[in-house]
Amino acid sequence: MDTEKENAQIVAFAPQNAKLNSAETCRIKLTLLGNRYNGFGQIHLIGDDIVWLGPNSFRSCGDSFTGNYNVIPMGIMSEPIIC
Question: 54: domain range?
Answer without folding.
Answer: 35-72
